[in-house]
Amino acid sequence: MTKSEPNLQPETVAASHGVAKDTAFHAVVPPIYLSSTYAFNGFNNPGSYDYGRSGNPTRNMLGDALAELEGGAGAVVTSSGMSAVDLLLGQLTSSDVIIAPHDCYGGTYRLLKARAGKGHFTVKFLDMGNLAELSNVLDAGASLVLVETPSNPLMRVVDIQAIARLAKKAGALTAVDNTFLSPALQTPLKLGADYVIHSTTKYLNGHSDVVGGAVIAADLEKVEGLRTWATVIGVIGSPMDSWMTLRGLRTLFPRILRQQETAGRLAEWLSQQKSVAVVHYPGLRSHPGHRLASKQQRGFGAMLSFELAGGTKAVEAFLQELKLFTFAESLGGVESLIVHPATMTHVDMTSKEKLVAGISDGLLRISVGLEHPEDLLSDLKRAAAVLS
Ligand SMILES: *Cc1c(COP(=O)(O)O)cnc(C)c1O
């Protein structure tokens, strides 16, 4: 891995990693290397790259930038967030136990259940906010603790440092899915985690035009383990996607900072509406994770959810009126999106599972984009007006 100059601020890393490094033509923007194969220097003498599955200069440039932003020893860029999770799971054996959040991302939940069902490992789902229970489960033996904070869609916040400490004491590793905040707002490796996972589809690329993922590890040995396994199974990100994600990454900081500012305003407004039963946003003082989020995050992020008091009927009427918020899955792009978790992201859950997870029929989740806050507010106001 190539390191850029030490001691740069993360904003600078995002904006400048790989810029003006082209030795062939002094291109300011890093060139994209599409080649699947590389000529050997001579007999039994490969160059720094030999074949595109094991390494690609464009993909590696993105990986190095992400590793630097997260404070890791290296990163592996994958074809999706799910393949990033699966790459990490591939480090486990059938005798291993994973502890995962009961309210983790739906795709992760499905993957963990499916692989456990095939005997690849054992999985135990629990509420990571309950450290005493986690401690008990860890005592029974575990290899990996998977963490998501803030959670989807209720924005619950759990203590990364405390979890990583407990895990370490029990001989388990900790992996944090940092998709919802990005390294601009949270750096789990600095809080003691061993791995960070990303769906780069979201904030890192930020323009809703790439599906990709990454795993970053704190130490080099683990990076090598991931790199080898990624080459074995071939879950690599494409050069084009990597190049586009690197381009998106340039503006990560200004995007997410502006988006979270707008999110804070929308959350405040929503929390004052009679038609809204509850708003889940860690930036609100009323949010149960507010203090912890203030301590462990550098900002409250641009994701929030809220429950319409009128249930499904209210949701339908509300969505009908929205013009700026697009009714679509995913998050982290420049455009504001709204989803109905019960029928979209969490549709695979049974009614009972949804009830336990707190996903009611009136719940809506929004990903706040870069539109002017007043325009977004007007959109919400118009929609809310039909509810009263
Ligand atoms: C979207 C998402 C994933 C899955 O990523 P894909 O790029 O869609 O495969 C995993 N974790 C979280 C928290 C996500 O939001």
UniProtKB/TrEMBL annotation:
Keywords: Pyridoxal phosphate
One GO MF term attached to the UniProt entry: cystathionine gamma-lyase activity
Matches recorded under InterPro entries: Cys/Met-Metab_PyrdxlP-dep_enz (IPR000277), Cys_met_metab_PP (IPR054542), O_succ_thio_ly (IPR011821), PyrdxlP-dep_Trfase (IPR015424), PyrdxlP-dep_Trfase_major (IPR015421), PyrdxlP-dep_Trfase_small (IPR015422)
Cofactor: pyridoxal 5'-phosphate
Cell membrane as UniProt keyword: no
GO cellular component: cytoplasm
Keyword Zinc in annotation: no
Residues with N6-(pyridoxal phosphate)lysine modification: K202
CDD domains, per database record: CGS_like
Any GO BP: methionine biosynthetic process
Protein family: Belongs to the trans-sulfuration enzymes family.
Entry protein name: Cystathionine gamma-synthase
Organism this protein belongs to: Thalassospira xiamenensis
